[in-house]
Amino acid sequence: MSNKPSIDDYLKTGIYGMKEIKPDERNRFLGTLRERIVVALTQQQVKEPGTYLEVEELLRSNPKAKLYLNGQIQYSYLSDYIKLANKYGNPFTSVTNKQSKTDIGLVLAYDYAIEKEEVFLEKSRESTKEEEQNKESIISKFFKNLF
């Protein structure tokens, strides 16, 4: 037997498309594989005001890594990360896959495996406390001005 594709292989490729490795993983991580990821943020994290300092540091220290942005998120949330990618020379792309839903909003990844253990950033408790204090001070200022 030869290793040449048969007519059935050509027909299946024509009907179903090329075979993909780990399609569920690619759908979740905006078209890339988990083993290639430097950092990933959820949609909720991307929608928070400002940017994550860790992401900026990773963009700066990984200039050949590509930034994948979820195209279903409004541009206003993504614009700060796009500016950072331009600032540090990282290529970026917006990924819109209407056939599948994902909780991922941003992925910084290489085109080869790096096998990083932890790719998700968790919000530190300190920044959460700072935000709560800021909210309390805004509310107290509002009520002081009101009365």
Order of helices and strands: HHEHHEHEEH
Give the number of helices: 6
Q: Calculate the terminal CA-CA distance, rounded to whole Å.
A: 88 Å
Number of domains: 1
The assigned structural class equals alpha+beta
| Unreliable segments of 5+ consecutive residues | none
What name does the CATH topology carry?
60s Ribosomal Protein L30, Chain: A
Write down how many β-strands occur, each being a DSSP E stretch of 2 or more residues.
Answer: 4
Largest sheet: 4 strands, mixed
Which whole number gives the mean pLDDT? 87
CATH class placement: Alpha Beta
Organism: Bacillus salitolerans
Protein name: YueI family protein
InterPro entries: DUF1694, Ribosomal_eL30-like_sf
Could you explain the architecture of this structure?
It is a single chain. With 147 residues, the chain is α+β, with helices and mostly antiparallel strands. The chain has a single domain, classed as 60s Ribosomal Protein L30, Chain: A (2-Layer Sandwich), CATH 3.30.1330.30. It is built from six helices and four strands. The chain has a four-stranded mixed sheet. The chain is elongated. It starts with 6 loop residues before the first helix and ends with a helix.
In short:
This protein is of the alpha+beta class.
